[in-house]
Amino acid sequence: MTSEPPSARPDRHVPPGPKRKMPSMLKEPYQLVRRFAGSLSFKLSFYAGLIMFLALVAFVYQSIRSQERDLSAGMVREALKDSEVIKAAIWDGMMTKDRRVIREIVKAIGLGHGFEKIDIYDRNGLVRYSSHADPLRQDFKTEREPLLKEIGTNTLIRHRISEDGQWIHVVNPLVNTKSCSTAACHAHPENHKVLGALAIKFPLTEYRKEIYRNARNATGLAFALFVVISTCIGLAVIFLVNPSIKKLQENAGKVARGEYEPQEPSRGAGEMAELSRSFDAMSRHVHRRTTRLAESRRMYKSLFEEVPCYLTAVDRDYRIVRANRAFREQFGDLVGKHCFAGYKGLDSKCDDCPVEKTFADGLSHRSEHTWLLGIEKAYVIVDTAPIFDDEGNIAEVLEMSLDVTAMKQLQMELERKKQEYQYLFAKVPCYLTVINPDFEIGQTNTLFRRDFGDRVGQKCFKVYKNRDARCPNCPVEKTFADGLSHESEEVWRRNGEEAHVIVHTAPITDDEGKIISVIEMSTNITEVKRLQSELALLGETIAGMSHTIKNILSGLQGGVYVVDSGLERSKGERVRQGWSMVKRNVEKVSELVRGILYAAKEREPEYEECDPGRLLTEVCDLYEERAKAEGASLKRDFRPVMQPGPLDPAGFHSALSNLLSNALDACRGADAGGNLVTVSGRVEAGTLTVEVTDNGVGIPGEVRDKLFSKFYSTKGSKGTGLGLLMTRKVTEEHGGTIHVESEPGRGSRFVIEIPLKPAQEANGLRTAV
Amino acid sequence: MAKKILVVDDEPDMVTFLATLLEDNGYEIVTAADGEEAWEKVEAEKPDLISLDLLMPNKTGIKMFRELRKDKQTTDIPVVMVTGFGKDDVPQMDFKKWIQERAIRPPEAYIEKPVDKDVFLAEVKKALG
Question: Which site among A540, A557, A565, A573 would you substitute to test the B interface, given the most B Cβ atoms closer than 10 Å to its Cβ?
Fold first, then answer.
C-alpha cells in the first residue's frame, strides 16, 4: 500500500513523506497539512515572514543591549556623582568631628531616593558608617567584594555591576589630605594616602524593568510585522502567482496526456507571462514532435502491414515477433515460432542466415534464397535490418523477403532465349554478320568465320566483295534508311571462284526503336544455281533426246513403209533399202540407250593391265569405215604397242569412241574434202596422253565452258548431250584430266591425260572419285 | 500431170521414207539434204510443194522458209513443215510463235514427227488444192 493518494500527483515536487502507517482517520488532516505546508504560498509567506521576524528580533536584541549599556553608563555616572556628593557631605562631618552627624547624614542620604546602601570603610576594611546597620562591623563583603581589595592604598574611584545585574557598586576612596593628617582629632598619619572608602550600592531594578518593557514591545511589534508580511505575501502568491501556476500545471498535465490544445499566447509582461509563453512554446514544440512521432508510428505500422513483401521481426532466438499481412496471408500466424521452422520447415537455423549476420555486426545484409511454397519453388531476396532498443543493443532484426520468382523466371527465360539466339546465330547455315552504321562488321557467326576468318571491325564491302567503296543498291543501307528488311541477289568472287548469294537484311533496334545496326544474312545459293542450270540443261537434253527418238521412230516407220512398199511392188532393191533403214535405226536406239545408261548409272569400272596402243588401234579400226564414208582421213599417230597400265578397257573404249565420233561429226559440218582426224597417243613419265585432233568446225568459246556438263549437246537433233560427259567421267575415274583446245572454223583438240599406276592403286582410285 | 514435190531433210532415212510414200501416191519427187541444195532444186525444178525439215545444217529450215516467202517467185509455193520439235519440247524453239511475231504467212501444214503417213498425205493434197 502506498501512502501517496492519486490527488497528490500535482504536488510531485514535494518529496514524499516517510512511509509509515497511520490511522486512516488521521490520514485526511495529515494530507491536508502536508499539502498546505508544501504549497508555494505557504512556503513563500512562512519563510519570508520568519526571516523578517528573526531579523527584527535580532535588531531588538541589539537595540536592548546598547540601551542597557547606555543606561548602565548613565547609572554609573549618576552613582559616581552621588558618591562625590555623599563624600562631600560626610567630609564636613568629619571635619567637625561630629560622628553622629555623619551617621545621620549617611542614614539620611541612604534613605534617599535610589540608594540601597551606603557604607563607609576605614582603611582596614571596617565599616565605620552605614545607612543600614550599626557600623564597626567587619563586613564580610570586604573580603569578597573585589572593589574593596587594597582598600588602604587604591586611590581610584571604581565601580562594578553585580553578576546578577541587579546592582551597581561604586567605591570612592577617601584620600588623606593635609587637613586630615594634621587634624587633632584622630590623627591620620601622613603616610597613609588612603584613609578609607565610601561604598555605595545602587539598585538597577527599575531601569531593567524599563528595558524589559521595551524589549517586550519590540518583540510584539516584530511578531505583528511577521504576521502581516506573511499574510500579504501569502495572499499575493495565492492571487497573483497561483492561477498562472495552476494553468501551467493543467497544461502540463494535458501535454503529458497528449491532449494539447493550442493556447492564445500570453500577452502580459513579466516573468510569469514570459514563463507562460515559454511553456506554451515548449508545449507546441512537444505537441509537434508528439504528432510527428505518432504520424511516423502510424506510417511505420501501415507500411509494415501493407508493404507487398514478407516482413517479420525476429528475435535472438530466431523466433518471429511480428509479421505483416502479406506474410500472414501466405504462411498463417507464425508469431512465436522459429523463422526457419515456420516457412522453410527446417529443424535448425539456415546456412548463411542473414539475420544471424545482422545480429553479429549490426549491419544490413542481403541474400538470395530458394523457398518451397507448397510444391512451387520460389526465388526470394531477403534483406535484413537491425532494430535497436533504448540502450542501443540489437533487440530484433527486421527481415524483408521479396518474392522475385516471376522476375527470376523471366530472367531465366531471357537467358534461355539469349542462348537460343546465340546458338541460332552461331549455327545457322548461312553467313551472319551484324553491320554498324559505318558499314563495319560487328558480330559474325561460325560459318562466316570459317570461310572469311575473323574480320570484325572491317568494312563489309571489303570483306564480302573485296571492294573499296560501298556496293551499289546496298540492302544494308536501305534497311538503315527505312527500317525494313531487304533482299538482293549478288555474285561474289572469291579466290577465283564465283558464288551466287542471296542477301537478306533486318534491322536491330534499341529500346527507343532507333536502328543501331543491321543484321545481314547471306545464303550461298551457288549449288542451287548450279542445280538450276543443270535442270535447265536436263530439260534441253530431254527435249533433244525426244527429238532424237522421234527421228529414230520416223526412220523405223519409214523403213517399215519402204519394206512394205517394196514387197507390194515386188521391188527387191526397195525392200533391201527399207530393211537397212530399219536396222540402222534399231542400232541408233541401242546406242542411245547405252549412252543414257552410262550417264545415269554408276557403272563399276573394272581395271586390268592393258596396252593403250591396242585399245587405240581397236577404236580407230572401228571408225575407219565411217571416216572413209564421210570423206575424212583418220591419221594414227601412236605406236601399236605401248607401255601397259591399269585401265578400264570398256570405259576407255567408250570415251575414245566418243571423241572420234565427235571429231568426225565436226568434220562433216565443215567443208568437204581435206578433213583430217588425228589420233595420237604416248606414255611419258608414267602418264598416258591421248589427243584427238580435227580440222572441223571448231567450238565457240561460250560453248567450251559447258562442254563437259551433263546433257549438253551442240549437235541439235543428232546429239544426246551424253558423250563428253561420259568421256570426262571415265577420265576422272582413271584419276586423269580432260581439256579442250579449239578455234572456231579451224578445228579442235581434246586432250586426255591419265597417270598410269599399279592396278590395286588404280582400283582404290575409283572410290576416291 | 503429176505434181512435183521437193522433200528437204538432212536425215537420209526421212528423205527415203517421204519420197517413197509420195512416189507411191503418184507425185513426182525431188530431194535435197540441206538448205543450200534445196534452194538450188527450187530454182531448177520449180516444185509445186515443199516438204521442209525445220532443223538442218547449212541454212536451217526456218531460214529457208523465210527466204521462200520473201522471194516473189517462190512466195506462193505451199510449204509443209516437218519437224521433230513440238512447242512443248523446247519453248524457245516455238516456230509457230516465231511466225506470228514476224507477220509472215504461215506454212500451209505443220507435221510433227513421227509422221503419220495418212495425215501427211491429206495435208499435202489439201495444200496443193
Answer: A557
Contact in structure between A398 and A311 (CB atoms under 8 Å): yes
User: Any idea which of A55-59, A391-395, B48-52 has the lowest mean pLDDT?
Assistant: A55-59
| Residue whose entry in the numeric block shows the C-alpha cell 525444178 | B45
Beta bridge partners of A365: A384
Query: Closest residue of A to B114, CA-based?
Result: A554
pLDDT digits (tens, 9 = 90+) for A80-135: 787 787 778 777 776 666 777 777 777 777 776 677 788 888 877 778 777 776 65
How many other CB atoms are found less than 10 A from the CB of residue A88?
9
The angle at the Cα of A187, spanning A182 to A190, to the nearest 5 degrees, equals 65
Cβ B114–A550 below 8 Å, yes or no? yes
**CA dihedral angle for residue A492, residue A494, residue A498, residue A504, rounded to 10 degrees:** -30
Binning chain B into helix, strand and coil, the percentages to the nearest 5 are 45, 20, 40
Q: Are A151 and A123 in contact (CB under 8 A)?
A: yes
- B57 to chain A, closest Cα gap in Å: 7
CB contact under 8 A, B17 and A543: no
Minimal CA separation from B108 to chain A, in Å:
21
Decide if B16 and A577 are in contact by the 8 Å CB cutoff. yes
Flag whether pLDDT at A189 surpasses 90.
no
**In chain A, positions 133-152, which contact chain B (CB-CB < 8 Å)?**
none
Binary contact (A716, B55; C-beta < 8 A): yes
Whether A717 and chain B come into contact, CB under 8 Å, resolves to: yes
Interchain pair B13, A581: CB under 8 A: yes
**pLDDT, mean of residues A253-275:** 73
* Contact indicator for A91, A83 with CB cutoff of 8 Å: no
Pairwise CA distance, residues A549 & A543, whole Å: 10
Give the span between the Cα atoms of B6 and B27, in whole angstroms: 10
Q: Which of A553, A562, A717 sits opposite B16 (nearest CB)?
A: A562
What lies within 8 Å, CB to CB, of A307 at 6+ separation is: A324, A326, A400
**For residue range A126-161, what is the model confidence (pLDDT) as tens digits?**
787 777 766 555 555 555 677 777 777 777 888 887
When CB atoms are compared, the residue of B55, B85, B113 closest to A554 is: B113
Of A554, A584, A717, the CB nearest to B114: A554
Question: Looking at A129-138, A732-741, B24-33, which range is the least confident one?
Answer: A129-138
* Minimum CA–CA partner of B90 in chain A: A543
Span of A332-346, A360-374, A412-426 with lowest mean pLDDT: A332-346
Residue A232, C-alpha cell as written in the block: 500579504
Cβ-proximal residues to A680 (8 Å cutoff; 6+ apart), any chain? A637, A638, A690, A691, A693
Contacts of A716 in chain B (CB under 8 A): 55
pLDDT at A720: 55
Q: Which of A184, A174, A194, A151 is nearest to A86 (CA)?
A: A174
Amino acid present at B3:
K
Length of chain A equals: 769
CA A466, A470, A474, A476 torsion: positive or negative?
Answer: positive
- Buried/exposed code over A124-150 (b: 16+ C-beta within 10 A; e: otherwise): ebbbbbbbeeebeeebebbeebebbee
Asked whether the ipTM of the predicted complex exceeds the cut of 0.90, the reply is: no
The pLDDT mean for chain B works out to 84
Cβ of A547 within 8 Å of Cβ of B24? The answer is: no
* The pLDDT of residue B26: 93
Do A558 and B20 count as a contact with CB atoms less than 8 A apart? yes
Report strand pairing: A608-610 vs B4-8.
Answer: unpaired
User: Residue A420: what are its φ and ψ, rounded to 5°?
Assistant: -60, -45
Inter-residue contact B51 to B109 (CB < 8 Å)? no
